[in-house]
Every structure is written in structure tokens, then in C-alpha cells.
């Protein structure tokens, strides 16, 4: 059952990422062409996503721990499907924001639920090993489906821009049905909770957040680096499409950039567990990967297409190392009872960083230049890595 659980987890995650990344190559382009938005307005649409994440991440993480990971994850997929359908029909700023808010609620439900389900189920069936290999395999498989989704989505966009969102929505609906049948929760067998017991469990989850934030140095470190991570990568996340379209106007070319990026991400996943973690240790391996991200973001905009694309792809190696290193470090240092809640706490730090990053790079790109936005963002990452490397607390 351990092997079957891992296969189910990786398969569901891979399909989930395929649906998400079907519009990855053309997301910003869609907003600018369909809705006539500028760079700052595009960031403000995405800001709606991150504000919603920040408000709902912790409560929905606790919901997954209390009411079950299967129902929580299936609900998340349904909300994503609705979000994609809203996007397919939208042509205005506020309609796009509505799509982001619905998708963000789905994201908060999904973030801690399926990962916590996998970790607890394999432990229930007798696995005592670290989940690092599972997270690595997940990144490989998700990388493949992201590549396929990004390229196919770019081709679909050339025929009908709304088609990328419609297909993604249909796939999300199918994943919800599969999750309801596949995600068994034997480890939850026992008497049904009363309302008082449920409230007590919710209170304990909140208490766990306070205790681990104060007393767990691993959680504190991950909160800081997670905040910086998303603050910094918002610039390339939101502006790589207009930047590379200024060098090559082909929309299909964007799909191949996505493919190359995810190949680099898979390489980063490989080196993270095979080389970086054994050589540096988990904490410093995270910092080495983030240093590569910061330097790459700074350097990309100073060059023409071949070199700029090469540096941009190389920085994705550091981003590929981020998730398996972070997730392994986190889940090896938190208790099972509050696993989804604490995973959601770390994600919340990411979201707060994303909010700051969207405002920061959006204003810089709109009123100064994309180059300045990227250089300053990368510089923040480099400075943070140097400070955390020396921090002994």
C-alpha cells in the first residue's frame, strides 16, 4: 500500500500540474491581449490571488487536518475548475480578479492536504523513511507534465486563447472525481468528532503554529526564506513573457521557453537531493539554490536573446531545488498531528512575500523598466542568502 499511495500521489499531482500549467506560457499575454491590461494591472490581478491565499491559508490548512484531506483536495480541484471557466469568459480587470480569488481558495485547500495525506498514509502502512525521494519523484513527473502542458497550451492559444482555460478546467474536474475514489484515509479511523472536539482540534492547530514559530528553528528559517523566495521571483514570474516577446514575437516560442525551464527545474530537483543536500546539508543547500536564483534574475536582462535565455534557464535549476529541499526539511521537523497546518503556515510566508513582490516589481516595471525590477529583486535574494548563511540562531 505504501507503493500504491506514492504512485497515486505522484499521478494526481502530475495531472494537477498539467492542468495548472496549460496556460502557463500565455497567462500574462492573455491578460494583456484579452483585457488590455498593462504590467502593473497584471500584477494587481495576481495580487488578488495572493491576498486571498494569505487570508485563507492557515484556516484551510487546519480544515484539512480536521475534516479530512480527500474531501479538502477534491473541493480544491472543483474551485480551480470554476476559476478556469471564469477566466475563459472574462475580458475585464475585475472578472479576472474574481477568477483569481476563486482559484486562490482552491489553492489554499490543496496546498497542505494532498501532501499531508501521502506522508501520513505511508507512515500508517509502515514506512519510516524520509519523504524526500517521493518529493523528488513528484518534481520529475510534474516537470514532464508541465512541459507538455506548457507547449500544448501555447499551441492552443494560437488557435483560441480561451481554449487553454477551458481544457484546464475540464481536467481539474476529472481530477476531483479521481481523488474522491483514490485518496483513502485509513489513518483517520475512529469515533466521529463532536463539535466540541472539532473546535478543540482547531485550537490545538493554532497553538501549534505559535509554539513552532517560537521554538522550532527550522520553521522560523523556512518562514524567512519562503517570504524572500516569492518576493524575488515575482519579477520573472510576471514579466518573462513580455520580456522575451520583445526579443522574439512568436507566442509558440513562449511554450518552448516553458519546456526548457521545466527541464532545468527537473535538473535542479536531481542535484538538490543527489548532490546539494549531502554536500551542504539541508539548510545550506536551500541557500545555495536561492543564491543561484538571485544571481540569475539579476543577470538575465543585461543580454540579448541567446545568452539571456541561457541564464534565465540556468536560474530555474535553483528554483527546481527549492521545493524538494524545503518540503523535506519541513516534514522531517514537524509532528504528524499538525502537518497540514504547519505546511500551510510556510506557504503563508510565501504568499506574503508574493504580495510584496507583486507591488514592488509591478511598480518598478511599469514606471522604470523590467531590467531595474529584475536587478533589484535578484539583489534582495543575494543579500538575504548572505545574511541567513551567517545566522547561527
In short:
By secondary structure, the protein is mostly helical.
Distance between the termini: 40 Å
Based on the coordinates given, report the CATH architecture.
Up-down Bundle
Query: What number of domains?
Result: 1
Q: CATH topology, which one?
A: Growth Hormone, Chain: A
Order of helices and strands: HHHHHHHHHHHHHH
Rounded average pLDDT: 85
Sketch the major β-sheet. none
- What is the overall number of helices? 14
Structural class estimated from helices and strands: mainly alpha
Low-confidence stretches: 189-193
Radius of gyration: 20 Å
- Tell me the CATH superfamily: MFS general substrate transporter like domains
The helicity comes to over 70%
The total of beta strands comes to 0
Taken from the alpha-carbon principal axes, the silhouette is globular
Q: How much of the sequence is in beta strands?
A: under 5%
Describe the protein's architecture and organization:
This protein has 393 residues and is mostly helical. It has one domain (2-390): MFS general substrate transporter like domains (Growth Hormone, Chain: A). 85% of the residues lie in helices and 0% in strands. It has 14 helices and no strands. Helix 3 (39-67) crosses helix 8, helix 4 (69-89) packs antiparallel against helix 5 (93-124) and helix 9 (217-245) packs antiparallel against helix 12. The chain is globular, with a radius of gyration of 20 Å. Mean pLDDT is 85; it is low at 189-193.
